[in-house]
């Protein structure tokens, strides 16, 4: 290789870049736990209140999922119909419909997912570790909740 009329070796041509310091991304927030204590824990604006609120929302989700499932499983209707003066009792149980059985199955899966997430959140809260470990974990939980919704 030639530069200014002089022959240079390949090692002399290498470019050295200045050192740069990489700034870590702030991944803390009201629902994202900080790794470690001290100053990192002070970066969380809501602290344990947000984690307790997260667990309470999981409890609310679990209660509503189980209530919806129990209402669907026990749904039935009965009435009487008068045909030419004859009173005929009619009873309808919604589990005879295949599409309704599918909806009940989906509600059961949602209730199981809610129970699993509730148990995980409560165990982490009792161990005093962050309920949501990282930003990636928060997105994963959010995506799972959206799928089951």
UniProtKB/TrEMBL annotation:
The keyword Hydrolase does not apply. Keywords: Cell membrane, Glycoprotein, Membrane, Transmembrane, Transmembrane helix. InterPro entries: CASP/CASPL (IPR006459), CASP_dom (IPR006702). It comes from the Eukaryota. Residues 48-148 form the Casparian strip membrane protein domain. It is a multi-pass membrane protein. Homodimer and heterodimers. This is CASP-like protein. It comes from Populus deltoides (Eastern poplar).
